[in-house]
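Quick review question:
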């Protein structure tokens, strides 16, 4: 079973000390590409990345975390008392000089730079474990979608694969008749050059043999069949085994052989089948780009 590379899941979780909302989106990418945005979680991000990489081998993974700490012990609060004393002392001096009592609101004080610093403490072991479990459950939902997409992609690839096999079989049938066609064309050409005089059969056989070897397509057709068998085998690997790069490589090799088939062919019918093969291969390569 092959796996797709696109999926999305979003879930909310709560514990006695944390409330969080997680979203995970995966997209096509040649390699594993991690992107994290949201609440700073320090070393815990590396642990989430490692958990993800154990289950997703290839693709871009975009993670967003909205985290709220519910326990007072989860926060650090620092008041710059020296700065506050200076502010209040200055206000008192101005009040005595002007004879007017100056007051400052708490809201105004909170806006003074570097007067108050509030920060979330690093996640403890229990909170980190809760975050990891929540991430794993959200990732489960993403993997369900990736498996579903992989099933559909595999179905479409098998349809294209069957079409390519038909075109290759037809090209092979035309190729088997090619020596006789070459010989007939050669006989006609030699007759024209000899002004209609009889053609020596020995000379005709020699020239026909040379042309048959020059335009021999047996190796190309054989390699096409072998690559198709390998491609088919990769569509049913062990669950979760990444095969996208191998499929992409085989698609390129198939396309190369189809090009050679078209360039060496002396039969317009074989050329037509080669073009049909290339058309199917282009669709296959597009599908393969979304296989893990």
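Suggested answer, residue by residue:
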């Amino acid at each position: 079973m092959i796996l797709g590379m696109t999926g999305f899941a979003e879930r909310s979780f709560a514990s006695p000390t944390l409330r969080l909302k997680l979203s995970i989106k995966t997209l096509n990418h040649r390699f594993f590409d991690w992107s994290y945005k949201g609440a700073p979680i320090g070393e815990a991000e590396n642990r989430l990345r490692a958990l993800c990489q154990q289950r997703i081998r290839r693709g871009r993974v975009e993670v967003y975390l909205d985290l709220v700490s519910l326990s007072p012990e989860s926060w650090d609060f620092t008041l710059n008392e020296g700065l506050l004393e200076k502010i209040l002392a200055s206000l008192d001096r101005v009040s005595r000089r002007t004879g007017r009592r100056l007051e400052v609101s708490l809201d105004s004080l909170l806006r003074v730079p570097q007067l108050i610093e509030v920060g979330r403490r690093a996640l403890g072991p229990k909170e980190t474990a809760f975050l990891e479990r929540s991430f794993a459950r959200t990732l489960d939902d993403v993997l369900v979608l990736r498996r579903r997409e992989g099933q559909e992609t595999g179905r479409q690839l098998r349809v294209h694969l069957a079409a390519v096999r038909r075109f290759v079989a037809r090209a092979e049938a035309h190729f088997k008749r090619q020596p006789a066609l070459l010989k007939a064309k050669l006989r006609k050409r030699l007759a024209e050059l000899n002004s209609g005089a009889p053609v020596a059969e020995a000379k005709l056989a020699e020239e026909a043999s040379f042309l048959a070897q020059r335009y021999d397509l047996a190796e190309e057709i054989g390699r096409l069949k072998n690559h198709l068998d390998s491609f088919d085998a990769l569509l049913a690997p062990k669950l979760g085994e990444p095969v996208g790069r191998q499929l992409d490589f085989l698609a390129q090799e198939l396309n190369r052989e189809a090009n050679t088939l078209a360039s060496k062919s002396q039969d317009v019918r074989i050329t037509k089948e080669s073009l049909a093969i290339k058309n199917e291969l282009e669709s296959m390569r597009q599908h393969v780009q979304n296989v893990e």
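Why it works: The two ends are 11 Å apart (CA to CA). The mean pLDDT is 86.
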